[in-house]
Every structure is written in structure tokens, then in C-alpha cells.
Design brief:
Order of helices and strands: HEEEEHEHEHEEEHH
Distance between the termini: 38 Å
Oligomer: single chain
Number of helices: 6
Strand content: 15-25%
Length: 216
């Protein structure tokens, strides 16, 4: 369903501080990789992806600290809603804590996106086909920092196949694009009812962390 001509914004989307910043996370339970995307839902219910980053073997704490630093640098006055891979709530057999537990120490309150790939696939497809004010409801800023997300949606996030072209699995293979695309999926499936809540406009911000009211 992804069409670069439609879903890559010709004009840059400028985020508004009166609405929350959205972050999507995909991670291995032991922190071998962490994929992160930043987005915002506009008042017209159009979802704009602003940035993506992939961390490989950097360590959980270092990746979280970098995400917070980037958030404070580019969106200093914004509160955040964070959605991620349910596997991030699983305790690491090495550290004996989950990534979600570590994130709590940094004032990041993670909410889970959908577990099932089919659900994530269907919700993403619905958004890609949705219109708002006759414009695509799903758009990505045309900046270098979103290139991996765009390339993943265009062709990089794929089902593994045999030489004959037959599909061998019912879920995409894990590759350099899958972590970023799946971070976007966890964000988009985790949004749910939050996207319609007026409360999010009034929530106090924790620069780099999640919205203050989320921990209540």
C-alpha cells in the first residue's frame, strides 16, 4: 500500500508543541538492537513521521539516552507518548530487568503496541489508504533521518522467499529495515484511543521523557 509519491511529504511537516510527540520503539529483549521513530498526529488526524534511528549493539541505556537527547534537541518543549514492542516488557536473562523497566528510570512510560504481525500489517495498511482533507493521512517527512523508514516501506521490509519466488514464512525477515518499520507499526497500533483524546493537549511535558500524566 505504500506509495512514495503519496506518502512522502513534499512540504516539511513542522511539529506543534501543543500536541504530544509520539515515539515508537522496537527492541530485542537483550538490547542487541533498538529501532526508534518519532511522529506527531496533527489536529486533522494526519500522522506525520519525523525521524527514525537504529541502534545496534550500543547498549540499552546509551540508546535511551541518545533518544532523549535528540528529543530535547529538536523538540525541547514537547511531552511524549511512547509505544513499543511487547517483548520490551520481558526480563532480560542477562540483566534480569526488562527494557521497559530501564526506560522507567528515565521517566519513559512505555505502552505496548499490537503483538500479532497480522494486526500490525492490517492497521498500517488502513492508515496508508486513509485520507484526511483529501490528503494522505499517513506521511513521512522527506529528510535524511527518515530514509531507512521510507526504504523499508518501499522494498526493504520483505518476506523471505525461495529462488522460485514462493513465500516461505508468514512474517517478514529480520533485516536492517525491519526494526524501524516495526517501531512504526508499534506506534501506529498503540495509538488507539489516545489519538482522539483531548487530554493529550493539556498534559505537562517531561523533556525527553513521557508525558507527566501517563504515570498517574
Amino acid at each position: 500500500e505504500f506509495d512514495e509519491k503519496l506518502h512522502v511529504s513534499k512540504l516539511p511537516f513542522v511539529a506543534s508543541p501543543d500536541r504530544p510527540l509520539l515515539r515508537g520503539w522496537d527492541a530485542h529483549p537483550n538490547g542487541l538492537y533498538i529501532g526508534v521513530v518519532w511522529a506527531q498526529l496533527g489536529p486533522n488526524k494526519r500522522l506525520h513521521y519525523l525521524r527514525s534511528e537504529l541502534y545496534e549493539r550500543t547498549g540499552v541505556k546509551r540508546a535511551i539516552e541518545d533518544v532523549q537527547a535528540l528529543t530535547r534537541m529538536y523538540w525541547p518543549a514537547y511531552g511524549c507518548l511512547d509505544f513499543g514492542d511487547p517483548a520490551m516488557f520481558i526480563q532480560s536473562k542477562i540483566e534480569m530487568v526488562s527494557i521497559a523497566d530501564v526506560m522507567q528510570r528515565y521517566k519513559i512510560n512505555l505502552m505496548a503496541g499490537a503483538v500479532a504481525f497480522n494486526t500490525r500489517r492490517e492497521v498500517m495498511a488502513e492508515w496508508l489508504q486513509r485520507l484526511s482533507d483529501k490528503q494522505p493521512a499517513f506521511q513521512i517527512n522527506d529528510v535524511p533521518e527518515t530514509l531507512m523508514l521510507r526504504d523499508g516501506l518501499a522494498a526493504g521490509y520483505v518476506w523471505p522467499t525461495l529462488d522460485e519466488g514462493y513465500v516461505t514464512r508468514k512474517v517478514p525477515e529480520k533485516n536492517e529495515y525491519s526494526h524501524i518499520v516495526e517501531a512504526a507499526q508499534y506506534l501506529i497500533t498503540g495509538l488507539g484511543d489516545w489519538m482522539w483524546a483531548d487530554t493529550i493537549r493539556k498534559a505537562p511535558a517531561r523533556p525527553g521523557g513521557s508525558l507527566g500524566w501517563m504515570g498517574a
